[in-house]
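G., the chain you wanted modeled:
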Amino acid sequence: MNWELVQRKTSLRSLTTLKAGGVAELFAKAKNVDELIKISAACQAEDIKVTTLGWGSNFLASDAGVAGLVLLNQTREINIDGDQITADSGVAFQDLWLKSTQAGFRGLEFAVGIPGTVGGALVSNAGAYRSNISEFLVALEVVTDGEARWVDPTWMDFKYRDSILRCENPRSAVITRTRFKLPRGEAKQSYDEAREYQRQRIGKQPPSASAGSFFKNVVDPKLAQEIEGLTEGMRKNNVVPAGFLIEKCGLKGFRIGGAMIGARHANFLLNVGGATASELRSLAHFAKQSVQNRFGVELEEEVMYIGDWSNFSPINP
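Predicted structure as tokens:
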């Protein structure tokens, strides 16, 4: 690896969709899989922590900065061979849907409107409308212990909006390539379904800087049957939307500094004017505590906090 290409003290504000946070101690870009493997392996050999960044749509970086190397994944290749699709981890999730649909496959319509890359989608097992990306994964290539190898999807230990790479103190690993198997289908049906999903999203999603849905929905059979205002589909699946609970706490439009809970959709935390990462996390903490106090359930973040948060002091309701 050419360490001369590594930058120091690079601001992350413009590289995340929340437009907040401090600087990366070290920063590099990988434009193809070979570079992604080489940089990841070199850092693992030197015991340098690697944080992989795609679109930056699921991260909130601390104002105090991020130690180690932040690696911007700009890999973009998609290959289709028979009934299998191989995609670099830096491919935009909705581009994977488009290419697969053009090739006569179905299944990823829910990806339209979800910001981020395929690699990021796998880390958080992204999904919507009762579908998840992990359903279609057949293999993935990861760099661990300084080497690239293909592994089975069980390696990721997928759960609802979760994987082994989201756990506390996860192992050092970088996803480089992915392989999917999708069912065949008509392109028109796929386009129509994706268009309807996009229409629904446009009606809910605010234009301000955000990370998309900030919290995971709550799966709680008892609460889903008792709380008023849910659809029959939600009750049947024992799902209570996080935004629904936050709205019930009267927090739509609530602000801390430049951070605001969406007035259109309460599961969106917005940067409406120079918000710091601490203000955004304080707002998230306030929403969590409010929901805990009223409904007795603890919201879990979809967004991942990265960097040094040791001096973070939240505001309580």
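The chain has three domains: 3-73, 78-188, 206-306.

Shout if anything looks off.
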